[in-house]
Write a structure and sequence with these properties.
Elements lengths: L1 H4 L8 H11 L7 E5 L9 E5 L3 H6 L5 E4 L1 H11 L6 E4 L11 H12 L4
Length: 117
Amino acid sequence: MLFGYFGEEVREDVAAKREFVLRRHVALWDVVSECDIVGSSDASITGYAVAEISSVLKAAPIRLILLNGAVAYKIFCENFAEIGVPFLRMPSTSPANPRYDHGVWFAALDSVFGAAK
């Protein structure tokens, strides 16, 4: 989804993905650092630990946090609602989500990257 937003070819290797996010000034962070989960079903998440975010916010000028799906949003709100950085619940990018709409994601990304895209 991010490669598509910036009009770039999808790269599969980790080094290329790392170079891409660094060059585009995108931070990726998961609200859950560990959990019990069945497959990749967020709805099955139990026994989770929340990931620490304060060091990320201290190290980078984060302007907007986009949360990938309902479960990430719920956990984030329960733990970081007063974080002081705007955040939005986004439709899950999971291939299993029939309601995924890249236009919603692209509009949110435009609000941050706009002309810099």
